[in-house]
Amino acid sequence: MPLMQKILSRYAGKYASRWLVLFIDMCLVTIGYLLAWVVRFNFQVDQMSLFEVTTSYYFIAAIYLIFFFIFKSFVGVIRHTSMYDTIKIIQAASAAAITAFIASYGYKFISYDHTYPIPSSIILIHALLTIFMLISARIVFKAAFITIAGMGEGVKRNVLIYGAGQSGIITLNTLSQDSRSEVNVVGFIDDNTSKVGKTLAGIKIYSADEALNGMLDKRSISEVILSIQNISSIRKSEIVNRCLEMNVQVKNVPPIARWINGELSSRQIKAVRIEDLLNREPIKLNQENIFNELTGKIIMITGAAGSIGSEIARQVVSYKPKMVIFVDQAETPMYELEINLRKRIERYHVMTKFIIADVSDVCAMERIFIEYQPTKVFHAAAYKHVPLMESNPHEAVRVNALGTKNMADLSMKHGVKKFVMVSTDKAVNPTNVMGATKRIAEMYIQCLSQLDNHSTAFITTRFGNVLGSNGSVIPMFKKQIDAGGPITVTHPEITRYFMTIPEACQLVLEAGSMGKGGEIFIFDMGESVKIIDVAKNMIKLSGLTLGKDIQIEITGLRPGEKLYEELLNDSENNKPTYNPKIQIANVQEYEYSYVKEEYAKLEVYCKTNDHLELVSQIKSMVKEYVSNNSIYETLD
């Protein structure tokens, strides 16, 4: 049998010719026709007329051959026979039988002796036998292929499939038909109690409690595959955490929309990512409002090559704007963005312009506004790394504060309808230069709404850490795990609010569509998460053991780093919107004249080389800015 398995493996990528399949089908039609006559005459062969059988056979064979071609019942891959192929066989045989019956009935009226050339009973028996034999032959071949393919010498992993619905059975079939698959499905899990105890494709269905509490140990389960299309993120997180506690790997079946040509591939079943463990339900957007805001408009995105800017770019293009202007000072990331967006741009027929420029360069920015006259601006350009900005406050002020002012002033001057700035939770009671400069930018953006000499609506969106963004803990932890560790965490109690990049950008688009001007929108970030727990879960998701395969090292808080971020969704201080995921922050507002005057001082200090003077001016503007673990604590 190992020899058979090797032969099968060698030719697994080759498929039988459709003409061979057609030849076999016609042989079965022939056998079925002979059997139909034998059954019709109650197995008394001596009563049969060989001449009648032979002459009528050619007529029947011709009809079946024609309908096999019409319905293409022989073109499917036999080893992957599905319900679709079965239906094609039934359609072809039924149509052939009906045609034969009509032809035979018509012949009765034009023949001399008014008899049927082929008895109706034989036509019916033959059709039933043909359907049975063709389907059976395919099932037998498919079963033989799966059986032989599974008889390799290697030991297979025992797995459970979570979800005994349509997606679950498709997952089972996909794994069974893959000759390279090294898994043995020993059970299904389902939350539907009416399915528990029954079998699906000969495999027992278990309750979640029974499977997760008992089978993971007793049956040496090494893997659980989540194959539920509609599952809450909270429930998914519960399942994954339970499996990880038992050192069982968890894989995920992607949404149907991401299947290749509507079919699931075993290669698409991948390990659950840390992003999948956020305890939050999917975000629902008001698509109509966003379409009205973006469709047919000229959109400008700064910081377009960054983590947030590039995702905003991907989402904006799908709303079919007239043109999108991508602006960033990073050449290589911008080139990569252009390559990644090419298919999407062609699909939605959107005009685009990729421009290398710095938002702090007011002349370069004005040229863009004059030439393209954008309708809406998404301002995501900023320096965001806390320790780096703590060491380079002049750059933080130049880009985060003064660059934002340039973009806002030009938006007013050139009649932009809406200006949406991407801010951060680090602007709340900032403890570092980066957060303080973002708060200064917020102050300027907000106070512009007090002026009545322009028609631009200025909107700020503020959210916390974004999973997977450049420089965030997730990519860093992945690199450290790949390198064998250790994983570095600054403090065992440090916590952060997390959101995925697509979620954050969806809410930016939603807030940008609902804003009237002057609002600071904050997003529901769910529950805060301990960074050390994120590290532990990533180790488990990688199939490694903490303390054995990899270590976690505590390095101490970095300059300007907070232990806890501020709670963004405090209902006592915030106003709700129609979207429960978005609220409007109640923050202190400043007079435009005061902010403008302070900005002038900031610009002067930014031209000096004195870090302390510059940071002192920042603290003068942001009264709540108190440095933490930083050289600037002396200024407080």
Q: Your description of this structure?
A:
- The chain has 636 residues and is of the alpha/beta class.
- It folds into three domains: 2-149, no CATH class; 157-272, Rossmann fold (3-Layer(aba) Sandwich); 287-465 and 498-526 and 566-632, 3-Layer(aba) Sandwich (Rossmann fold).
- 47% of the residues lie in helices and 15% in strands.
- The chain is built from 20 helices and 22 strands.
- The strands form five sheets. It has a nine-stranded mixed β-sheet, with helices on both faces. A seven-stranded mixed β-sheet has the order 3-4-2-1-5-6-7, sandwiched between helices. Strands 14-17 form a two-stranded parallel sheet.
- Helix 3 packs across helix 4, helix 4 runs antiparallel to helix 5 and helix 15 (433-447) packs across helix 20.
- The longest helix is centred in the N-terminal third of the chain and has 30 residues, at 120-149.
- The N and C termini lie far apart (79 Å).
- The model has no long low-confidence stretch (mean pLDDT 83).
Give keywords.
Rossmann fold; seven-stranded mixed β-sheet; 3 domains; nine-stranded mixed β-sheet; 20 helices; 22 strands; 636 residues; alpha/beta
Explain the layout of strands and helices:
Layout: H1 2-10, H2 18-40, H3 50-71, H4 83-110, H5 120-149, E1 157-162, H6 166-177, E2 183-189, E3 199-200, E4 203-206, H7 208-218, E5 221-226, H8 233-245, E6 249-252, E7 270-271, H9 287-294, E8 298-302, H10 307-317, E9 323-328, H11 331-348, E10 351-356, H12 362-372, E11 376-379, H13 386-391, H14 393-413, E12 418-424, H15 433-447, E13 457-463, E14 465-467, H16 473-482, E15 487-489, E16 495-496, E17 498-500, H17 501-514, E18 520-523, E19 529-530, H18 531-541, E20 552-554, E21 574-576, E22 582-585, H19 592-606, H20 611-621
Parallel strand pairs: 1-2, 1-5, 2-4, 5-6, 8-9, 8-11, 9-10, 11-12, 12-13, 13-18, 14-17, 15-20
Antiparallel strand pairs: 3-4, 6-7, 16-19, 18-22, 21-22
Helix pairs in contact: 2-3, 2-5, 3-4, 4-5, 9-17, 10-11, 10-17, 12-14, 14-15, 14-19, 15-20, 16-18, 19-20
